[in-house]
Specification:
Layout (H helix, E strand, L loop, with lengths): L17 E5 L6 E6 L24 E4 L2 E5 L7 H12 L18 H17 L5 E4 L3 E6 L7 E7 L16 E4 L4 E7 L3 H21 L6 E7 L7 H8 L7 E5 L6 E5 L1 E10 L3 E2 L9 H12 L16 E9 L5 E2 L2 E10 L5 H12 L6 E10 L2 E2 L5 H14 L5 E4 L6 H5 L4 E4 L12 E3 H19 L1
Parallel strand pairs: 7-10, 7-11, 11-21, 12-20
Antiparallel strand pairs: 1-2, 1-20, 3-4, 5-6, 6-10, 8-9, 9-22, 12-19, 13-17, 13-18, 14-16, 15-17
Helix pairs in contact: 1-3, 3-9, 7-9
């Protein structure tokens, strides 16, 4: 069944992205569900949910602009599909294996940003380009006369849909075989990043060619975060003057507005025993036995509270390896990584200490426990002016309100939020989650482009 949000930058290092839809009653969390489904791949279903008597308004009113159209007449759908297909042919995948992280300046990502995305920006006339260390690239538009700045970000590493056939075909076709009977673009990373990059390239092309007066400041960042951290976002935000007033991360949310998510700290556990031949286990201290005991002890962890919309904490081992891996040998060492979910106000150091105490005394084994990579929780006020503006633009384009959701996964929105830039997530979705075929419906990508164009014109023009 098609599902899954092309994950954020944990996650974008790398977990099934499941979001909780906001309850109509404040503070009431509903059941977790995949954000996308067969129904939500395409925006066409919104027609059935339009308010009676309301039609989509193709005009976007901005300060000093009587009426600027933000529909298909200005967003070049043919260009959007063409550039999405071209980008989908360029590999940006994270290789399968124990090391699920990728450096921002990995040669694969450098080639993608500098040899494909950057030249395309120049080709459409986006010349104000800011180089941020480690291959991050920011496009800037606007004259900065209005005290408003919007930062839109998306990412380059493709961490999911790892087992799809022909991952870099960039084919345009019909998604009926995957429960989405309409034209789509195929390719690994399309739902996670490349469709969103094509969307913003089409939006920038529209803004430049139309001469739309951007009195505020628009930033679009090509962010290479793939290490389950906020380091790239931290560097990008720190490099921007004026500081952004609001942020949007383009990622597959089924064109819903994600207002928050839990955080996460990785806790790295190293176990040292003694190797032995599997015929004489009594002569060693098998790290496999120790790892099994650690997993069982972590299952006993409980917490007295939960967040009303973000949910609960957990601590679970999500990857593990042993050394040495040799014929008929019980390994001496185990390396476990614990996913400890964080809620607003949680201290990562205290969370690591909590895992250490839960593991307890493992003698005669030696055990070390250390804090690993960290991503902060995100939570944005649903009554924010910017959230209302995004909601209004979505309704103008699709004729119905966008859903609001809260993520169970961990995403990069927490980094800018912690730096004082309220950041939500929004974007088109597709694909068979988490390892199957990746695609995005063309209609959903075009809807995303029109919504973002309308927001930019309404808030910055």
């Amino acid at each position: 069944m098609p599902a899954g949000l092309a994950a954020g930058r944990d996650e974008i290092a790398a977990e099934p992205a499941r979001l909780t839809r906001a309850s109509p009653q404040a503070g009431q969390a509903q059941r977790s569900r995949p954000l996308t489904s067969r129904r939500s791949h395409s925006p066409s279903a919104a027609a059935d949910r339009r308010r009676p008597g309301r039609e989509p308004d193709p005009r976007v009113e901005g300060s000093g602009v009587a009426a600027v159209r933000a529909d298909h007449a200005l967003v070049d759908g043919h260009y959007l599909v063409d550039v999405m297909s071209r980008l989908a042919r360029v590999p940006t995948d994270v290789p399968l294996g124990f090391n699920t992280l990728i450096e921002p300046d990995d040669p694969k990502l450098v080639r993608y940003v500098q040899d494909f995305v950057r030249p395309e920006l120049v080709r459409i006339g986006a010349y104000d380009l800011l180089d941020v260390p480690r291959n991050n690239l920011v496009v800037r538009l606007g004259v900065g006369r209005r005290d408003r700045a919007l930062l839109i970000q998306n990412y380059t590493p493709a961490q999911h849909h790892n087992l799809m056939a022909e991952p870099f075909s960039g084919k345009v076709g019909n998604g009926a075989a995957y429960g989405c009977p309409e034209p789509v673009v195929f390719g690994q990373g399309v739902s996670q990043n490349k469709a969103h990059q094509a969307v913003m390239l089409a939006v920038l092309k529209m803004l430049i060619e139309s001469g739309a007066p951007i009195e505020g400041t628009l930033y679009w960042a090509i962010n290479n975060e793939g290490r389950s951290s906020h380091e790239c976002s931290d560097a990008i935000v720190a490099a921007l003057t004026p500081k952004p007033s609001f942020g949007i991360i383009q990622i597959g949310t089924g064109l819903a507005i994600s207002l928050g998510n839990r955080g996460r700290v990785d806790v790295n556990v190293h176990v040292r025993g003694r190797a032995a031949h599997s015929s004489t286990p009594e002569e060693g201290l098998s790290a496999i036995d120790a790892a099994n005991e650690i997993i069982n002890r972590l299952r006993r962890l409980t917490w007295p509270d939960r967040h009303p919309v973000l949910g609960e904490r957990h601590a679970i081992v999500y990857k593990m390896r042993f050394e040495p891996v040799a014929p008929h040998t019980l390994p001496a060492e185990a390396f476990l990584t614990v996913d400890r979910r964080l809620l607003p106000g949680d201290d990562p150091a205290a969370a690591t200490e909590e895992v250490r105490r839960a593991i307890g005394d493992m003698r005669p084994y030696e055990v070390s426990v250390e804090t690993g990579v960290l991503m902060w929780p995100a939570l944005v006020d649903p009554d924010s002016e910017w959230v209302a503006a995004l909601q209004a633009s979505h309704e103008r384009v699709l004729g119905a309100e966008a859903g609001t959701v809260y993520g169970r996964g961990t995403f990069d929105a927490g980094g800018p939020c912690k730096m004082g830039v309220p950041t939500v997530m929004y974007g088109a979705t597709g694909g068979v989650w988490p390892t199957g075929a990746d695609f995005v419906p063309i209609s959903a990508a075009l809807a995303e482009a029109k919504v973002l164009a309308g927001l930019i014109l309404a808030q910055l023009a």
